[in-house]
Amino acid sequence: MVDIYWGEDPMSAPDYIAPKCVIGLDRDGVINVDRGTYTWKGTDFEPIKGSLEAIANLRRIGHKIAIITNQGGIEKGLFTEEDVDALHMYMLNLLGKAGCPSIDAIYYSASSHKSNMYAKPNIGMFKRCEKEQKFKDIKFNKGYYVGDKMSDLKAAHRIGAKPVLVRTGYGLKTELELKKFTYRDIRKKTIIFDDLSSFAEWIEAH
Which residues are catalytic? Predict the structure, then answer.
């Protein structure tokens, strides 16, 4: 977990509590281009067009922001937790340049196995975020979770968040998969947007 603030903006103060509901975000395929392999170097981190500005806008209008992502390459020995932390610092610096003065948290699972309580679609990371950020009143059952994969939508559904599917990353494939009868309950609750920028615009309009 990383709890980051920067800059002179009042929203960057450690005791700042965003007044509106939490918006949880997957990382690869939502914030940055999913390369089809693991992204753990700054040189490989390519923001999806408008994604950083979208996060900045969501923060500006008062939403809590929590990034929750599986990083199973750690368990496979392809990179380390220190590599992921360094990449996230790089991403946060880009967010700062895009006008986002702070976010509330970043949580990642070192595994992608379904048997791991922290790996999506399981909700261990979400529960840990709520517990550790309790003073910020983060409650996913009152907020949203944005992802591009079925595991994201399943996790959102299980924690009680509003599932949001974006068509970036694996989103188009997931949109087709969502039409299966087995996912009818999740489909009824899911809202779909072309990208994170479109979702942020919708949130701001509502």
Answer: 26, 28
